[in-house]
Design goal:
Length: 67
């Protein structure tokens, strides 16, 4: 799995977790989904993605989106 796919998979996992937790535990867990969405939005404009930095340090092979 390259860097791009790892970041997208992680973002999808965070969004799903936030949605499920907000439905089953407490409605304020929707903030996790909102945070993930805002982070994806800012990464699309700036190219800065904290998750990409972490996955790169973990050894994920380089993709094309986060250079």
């Amino acid at each position: 799995m390259n860097l791009d796919r790892a970041v997208m998979a992680f973002a999808g996992l965070v969004v799903l977790a936030g949605a499920i937790l907000s439905l089953t535990v407490h409605p304020w867990w929707i903030a996790l989904t909102i945070f993930a969405g805002l982070n994806l939005l800012q990464a699309s404009f700036t190219g800065f993605c904290p998750a990409a930095i972490v996955f790169r340090k973990l050894g994920a092979p380089q993709g094309t989106a986060f250079d």
